[in-house]
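Weekly modeling sync, notes
Attendees: S.R. (lead), two postdocs, one rotation student

Agenda item 3: backlog of single-chain predictions. S.R. asked that every request posted to the team notebook include the full sequence so nobody has to chase files. The rotation student volunteered to paste the first one in as an example of the format we agreed on. Action items at the bottom.

Example entry:
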Amino acid sequence: MKKIWTQYLLVFGLGIVLFISLISISKNPEIEIEGEWSELTWEYEKADKNETTIQDFTSISNYVKDLIGENLVIHKAEKWKFFPNGKLILEGNGYEKEVSWSMKGRGNILEIKYDNQNAEHYNLTELSNDKLVLNFNTDTHTRGIARLTFVKTNHHVKKI
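Predicted structure, as returned to the notebook:
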C-alpha cells in the first residue's frame, strides 16, 4: 500500500514539474506584441456560409474596408506601435492617435480603449516574431469576420 502511494506521489510530482516547465517556456503575448507593426492585408469572411475554408477569406477593397471599419478608429491606421506601458500609437496617412491596449482572456483577446472609454476587442489568432493576425466580428450589414494581418517592421519602440 505504501508503494502505491509513493508511485502516485511521484507521478503527481512529475506532472507538476512538467506543468511548471511548460508555463515557464511559453512566450508572453504582452511582450511579443511590443514593437511597430505595419498593416499587410485586410481580409473578409462572410458569416452566412455553412463551412469556412481558407478560400472564403478574400482581400477587400478600400470601400468595404471603410464600411466594415466605419465605427472603428483602427481602419485609418496603417502602422500600430505597441509600447510596454500599455500605450498604442495608431498611424495612418496624415493621421495619428494614441490609445491604450491590454491583453485579456488567456492572452488571446486584444482590447483597445479610447479616450472616451469605448473599447474594441480583437481575437489574436496568430502572433510570431514577424506576423500578427487579428480577427474581429463586423456588426454592419456586411455581417462577417474581418482579418487584419500585420508584419513587424521594428522590434523595439522608444518608450514614451
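Discussion: group reviewed the output briefly. Residues 29-154 form a domain with the Lipocalin fold (CATH 2.40.128.280).
Action items: rotation student to repeat for the remaining queue; S.R. to check formatting next week.
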